[in-house]
Specification:
mainly alpha, 338 residues, single chain
Length: 338
């Protein structure tokens, strides 16, 4: 059954008495979820500020419709109607109608709104810096505590660069916690809200937008596997390169005594060229994806403008509607891409 020279035995592995089934990935994500919960108050404030800032951007886009249709073309100025019994709300609505009906007050209000947007952006930046500082401290403490408790075998099995790379990855984790989670919620909300407004302006143009988004999704899915594979290879090669550099520096005296400088330089150069080759491939793939996505967006915008111009000429929508749609479209694509 077995040829001569081959070990004629079969090795099997069985679960021991102390074996416990665990989901290690669950614990990994739970650790960062605890950090997220610990800073939930600041994250909630960042979310509120971000939603307000996004809302101001949408209001600014819709203001173009008001300027063109009501003030430039002289069409009838629509007003906000309130039929409730609350006197305070009625007063606020009346004041808003006065502002949007007056040419100069309308532009003054826009200046005030954009000034408010600047102030809120600064406050949001302060909160992001604060939470980044908190998360940074927690991650560094967790990293140090984990490293010193690792067994000696771990350091023998893993390259030094791979261990140190975990420390450099903390910046990405900080961005994920401080901005990533908030950005996901904001982008979903703004895509839904922006989509609703675009539908309200014109359904035909919005259906064309959906066609563009479908092409977006196809391109992303095509490049997804290649980009993920390249990123993993870059991470591994870079870790090996850092380990080799550290090994060379730590043993530089021995290397010089043995006159082995050229050997180590050749090895490091070979590893660095291998790493740079993967980086080069990654940049080509990434730039190709970006170029395709941008081209789809540009050509799609031209077709939407083509359709919108046709609708304006045939009095299906107003010129202000078209300008507002194009302005919101940029905002819509931005959040969808994020």
């Amino acid at each position: 059954m077995f040829r001569r020279g081959v070990w004629p035995h079969l090795v099997t592995i069985e679960k021991g008495r102390n074996f416990k089934k665990r989901n290690l990935k669950k614990g990994f994500y739970l650790k960062y979820w605890k950090i997220f919960i610990h800073n939930k108050n600041i994250l909630f404030l960042i979310l509120i500020f971000s939603l307000v800032l996004s809302g101001i951007t949408m209001i600014a886009s819709l203001s173009y419709q008001k300027i063109i249709d009501s003030f430039i073309l002289g069409n009838e100025i629509p007003i906000i109607q309130y039929r409730g019994a609350n006197s305070v709300v009625r007063i606020v609505v009346d004041q808003i109608n006065i502002v949007i009906s007056n040419f100069h007050l309308f532009f003054i209000a826009l200046v005030v709104i954009f000034t408010l947007q600047m102030i809120l952006s600064i406050i949001k930046g302060i909160f992001i810096a604060k939470i980044s500082n908190r998360v940074n401290k927690e991650l560094i403490n967790n990293y140090l505590n984990s490293v010193v408790k690792l067994p000696i075998r771990y350091f023998k099995d893993w390259e030094t660069g791979e261990i140190l790379s975990r420390f450099s990855d903390m910046e990405e984790i900080i961005n994920l916690i401080s901005e990533g989670g908030v950005a996901i919620v904001i982008n979903i909300f703004m895509v839904i809200a922006g989509g609703a407004i675009l539908i309200n302006i014109n359904l035909s143009m919005f259906l064309m937008v959906m066609g563009i988004l479908f092409l977006y999704a196809v391109i992303v899915l095509i490049f997804k596997h290649s980009i993920a594979s390249i990123k993993l290879n870059i991470f591994e090669k870079n870790s090996q390169l850092v380990s080799k550099l550290k090994e060379t520096i730590d043993n530089i005296c021995t290397i010089k005594n043995c006159s082995a400088e050229n050997k180590f330089v050749y090895k490091i150069r070979e590893m660095s060229e291998n790493t740079l080759q993967y980086i080069y491939k990654g940049e080509i793939i990434s730039e190709s994806q970006i170029a395709l996505l941008n081209n789809v967006e540009r050509i799609g915008t031209i077709f939407i403008l083509w359709l919108g111009s046709y609708l304006v000429i045939h009095n299906r929508i107003s010129l202000g509607n078209l300008i507002a749609f194009e302005s919101l479209l940029v905002f819509f694509f931005l959040h969808f891409n994020n």
